[in-house]
Amino acid sequence: MTLNQWLSVATLCGMMLLFIWGRFRYDITAIIALLAALALGLVPPEKAFTGFADDIVIIIGSALVLSAAVQRTGLVERAVNLVSQWVRRPGSQLLILTGSVGVASGLIKNIGALAMMMPAASQLARRSGTNPSRFLMPMAFASLLGGLTTMIGTSPNIIVSRVREEMTGQPFRMFDYLPTGLGMLVMGLVFLRVAYRLVPADRRAAATMGEALNISDYTTEATVSAGSDAIGNTIEEFVAGHDNEIEVTAVLRAGLRGEVHPATHIAEGDVLILSGDPDALERAIARSQLSLDDDGEDDEHAGENKRARDDIGVIEGVVTAESAFVGSTAGRLMLKDRLGLRLVAISRQGESLRNKPGNVVMAAGDVVVLQGVLGEMPGRLRQLGVLPLAQRQIRLGMNRSSWWALAILALAMISTATGLVPVAVAFFAAAGAVIITGALPVNDAYEAVEWPILIMLGALIPVSETLQTTGASDILATQLSHIARDMPPWGAVAMVLAASMAVTPFLNNAATVLVVAPIAAVFATDLGYRPDAFLMATAIGAGCDFLTPIGHQCNTLVMGPGGYRFGDYARLGAPLSLLVLALGTPLIMYCWPL
What is the pLDDT of residue 484? Predict the structure, then answer.
């Protein structure tokens, strides 16, 4: 091996050691590796930042935006509500999630299936009191296994099909992968159902400053509009239907305050004074089709048009001692008419409010949620004497798109499944579409993206490519070829499978197939066997990186939301990899005789 080839291998090994050590955050480690490769001359300066234009970076960023848009629709909560009524144990919930992701990954790209199901995982985890990290990594692994079942599930299957066509004139067809892929998926689901506890239970996504404030006891008002699911329910049934996360502190009927009794039936036109966590209030209002607008009919339509604009948002703030709010109400201040603001909710520590937020006499220290034009908010808040709090996701008072996000995501998946558009283009266009249609505001879209993950990917791609550019991958492949000639047939198949799984973390899965598949074909020719089993082993190995967050975009996608560290993947992934190797080899040889 030449000096540059040794340096390339050494740089990648040093990077892996830094990842495992965990002294630096993963994006900083990637930057260190890129700087080292530049300093050693392994990466030319003009190619140092080509990784940021790679398809994987675009796919990951777009998938995060689409996931946030799907979560915002509220349809996920409805599906989760149905599941949680029947399935309450975390293990059973995990089996449903992993099974759904696995099956969907065979029909659409596995990254799309995972992005679609992540919001459901977060909701189910919250309902069962489970850390979402216990669900997300197993779901990522299930998506990888599910992608093995069809040709369109993952990129390696498509590339292997082309290699077979070049060798034999006949490509693999759509469901040629199903016998081996389905067996691997079933085996993986059973393993993940039993072994999910290997995932560290204390991993959590990085908390924001807003979450650290932990303000949860908000009071808001909501009108029971025509067609609401709450009509005819008792107060007790309404609260129980929302998992007892909210409280009805008052009911106003025909302008009069009625007694709040568990047996009181809710009627159309009632104004409910609700108290609880802002996310719980937002879910309850969306799920029961309540309205936060109690103004006249014309004003209501104006309000809907206004909220559809992208520059309308909500801000959380605290009333200072010098505020104009102190000793007054939003109604007396004519907040909406004079300043264009609407008081959505109010929180007062140690007190459960029973009046409409607009009729509550404010006091210093009250926390309020105000809705208005975001560009005008800073000046309005200064004028009112309201101090904005650290930014966090407050969706109460924002509109939900009930179908746009899902329709756009479905169109993107159909486009990729039929081969009309490349995955990166389809996902990027879909992410842009959910923003343009108002299904997800621009600010929320930027907040949904895990920027450290994208930095890590952009920095690592040119570093990992040094194995190819220096020729180190060819040297390693030649050595493997010599070893395989002395092995029995099953050993050669197992070695191709293991080599593909080992190389994938350093190259992306598509590059792994391009490097290993020709070698596998040479194995078959030299040993006098048909190439099908060796090519299938290459595809399965390239699609099964369970050891790192960087070998496949599905693993990368859950790293930020799950709060995982680099070494966490091996805790669950190492035994799963051994299982794939032990059971995958005989399964491949049975389905594709040599």
Answer: 67
- CA–CA dist 505, 13 (Å, integer): 11
**Two tokens at 248?**
């009805």
Question: For residue 426, what are its two tokens?
Answer: 């389809």
What is the pLDDT averaged over residues 70-84?
64
Cα 499 from chain centre: 29
DSSP for 278-346, written as a single string: HHHHHHHHHHTT-BS--S-HHHHHHHHHHHHSTTEEEEEEEE-TT-TTBTS-TTTTTHHHHH--EEEEE
286 pLDDT more than 80: no
- Distance in angstroms (rounded) separating the CA atoms of residues 479 and 465: 20
Q: What pTM was computed for the model?
A: 0.62
Residue 61 Cα to chain centre, angstroms: 10
For 282, the token pair is: 């937002």
Instruction: Tell me the pairing of strands 312-319 and 367-373.
Output: antiparallel
Task: Judge contact between 22 and 567, C-beta under 8 A.
Answer: yes
> For residue 214, is pLDDT > 60?
no
Calpha distance 256→212 (Å, rounded): 38
Under a CB-based contact definition with an 8 Å cutoff, are residues 256 and 245 in contact? Answer: no
Please report which helix (H) or strand (E) contains residue 192, including its range: helix 178-195
At 143, the pLDDT band (50, 70, 90 cuts) reads: very high
Give backbone dihedrals phi and psi of 292, rounded to 5 degrees, phi first. -85, -10
Tokens of 285: 């209002």
The SS3 assignment for 399 reads: coil
Query: Are the CB atoms for 76 and 483 separated by under 8 Å?
Result: no
- Classify residue 94 by burial, with Cβ atoms within 10 Å: 0-12, 13-18, 19+: buried
Beta bridge partners of 250: 273
